[in-house]
Write a structure and sequence with these properties.
The structure is a homodimer of 170-residue chains. By secondary structure, chain A is mainly alpha-helical. Chain A has 6 helices and 2 strands; from the N terminus they run H-H-H-E-E-H-H-H. The structure holds a DNA duplex (30 and 30 nucleotides).
Chain lengths: 170, 170
DNA sequence: TCGGCAATATAGCCGTTGCTAACTTGATGA
DNA sequence: TCATCAAGTTAGCAACGGCTATATTGCCGA
């Protein structure tokens, strides 16, 4: 290693480090980060998307179940999510906390207005992502698999671009 | 609600629930899940991808830092990831545990052979994802943002499809 | 040489998402 | 009617990934 001579851009021009470590939020991009333009923002963004992902998955699934079966049972939700029932119960509690779903103990789960709208949005986005993947040559079954993870990171603007692409390719 | 008459496919044909709750891994897709073809697998898959994502991000970033600055310091890693230094330290500990990086206390972080290979793979994948997004009409800066989250869910087969698409598209 | 400071590490907290085990509840059939 | 048992909930644990606060270390300049 050469710790004595790291080709740092300009160590002297930067304060050795934040003298004020109050909160290193992405608010202060800190141009002194070597070569660091906005990396942190990207990761922060991705992290936040991930936090939403679970809610989106549950909401969409509950919507599907209600549509297909007339109601969403915890057992079915858990089975489809591939988790144990208590895990599903806990997730539903979070949905309730966030105002996306309602549920009375030992009864089915239902979506609020907000939750239903989210479910629709998620469903559309999912379909669009799958279609784009298919359009660029990904086999449909594989597209379905990968879309599950991808969709949560597709911003609304990117989604719009996807739709334009599909339209003009129609 | 109509809990008395859910249009379930065939409740009687299914055992009320797993009499053997040992482990409800996706090993047993459980065809009795209503309409449940392989939903659980998808989510399990996405969950696993997510678990890898953090490692991939760190490894790629460490590779970048070494290339650009000659060494990867914890402070730089933390700044670029947009996290506090202890968070980065903890992540590096995990990288070490998983055999992706080496680090001596108070010295820089380095990649193992395995880690370096992962970094290369991740870098290529990231670039490819960005190019595909751009190719379908997403503005480049937005593509960079969204790719950060998307890339971790792009399977190797899908990646291959992406590359073919880019190739034949010139 | 050695004192001070920046960089790193450790300790300890919180929230999330998994899990299993054990308890409740409600619906069903004898 | 009521006993039974699946479905659901609650309790409690582990691993992660954040954070702040505090302790170490190592480096550099006086």
């Amino acid at each position: 290693m050469s710790p004595s001579d790291p080709p740092a851009p300009d160590p002297a021009a930067c304060p050795p480090h934040k003298p004020d470590p109050r909160i290193q939020q992405p608010d202060a991009p800190d141009a002194c980060t070597p070569e660091g333009t906005g990396h942190a923002d990207r990761f922060t963004r991705a992290r936040e998307a991930q936090a939403q992902a679970l809610l989106e998955d549950y909401v969409e699934m509950i919507g599907d179940l209600i549509e297909q079966l007339g109601e969403a049972r915890v057992a079915d939700i858990a089975a489809r999510m591939g988790v144990a029932q208590p895990t599903a119960t806990k997730a539903i509690a979070r949905l309730k906390r966030e105002g996306l779903a309602t549920a009375r103990p030992y009864r089915g789960v239902f979506l609020t207005e907000t939750g239903a709208r989210m479910a629709d949005r998620v469903r559309v986005r999912h379909r669009t992502v799958v279609e784009v993947l298919v359009a660029v040559g990904v086999p449909r079954d594989l597209a379905e698999l990968d879309a599950e993870g991808i969709e949560h990171h597709v911003s609304s603007q990117t989604l719009a671009a996807f739709q334009s692409y599909l339209d003009q390719r129609g």
